[in-house]
Request: fold
Amino acid sequence: MAQLAESLELFAAMSRLPDTQLDVMVLRRLCGFTPAKVSDLLGIPLAAVRSNERHAERFLEDTIELPDFGGTAS
Reply:
């Protein structure tokens, strides 16, 4: 039950992200794509992927306690 509550809290917080940050977080953290692959899929520069990911992480860290996604640093 606690896992479900954490997931719902994460998804609720993620739904408040701007569109590009949400797209980046879904592709990076939930689908496990590399920054380069996300850049290709979204048609945005690699630097923009990294920036959007950082901003989204900061927002989520300020909003909720993020679960450990493990092994997604690339």
Remarks:
- Residues 46-63 form the longest helix (18 residues).
- The chain is about 70% helix and 0% strand.
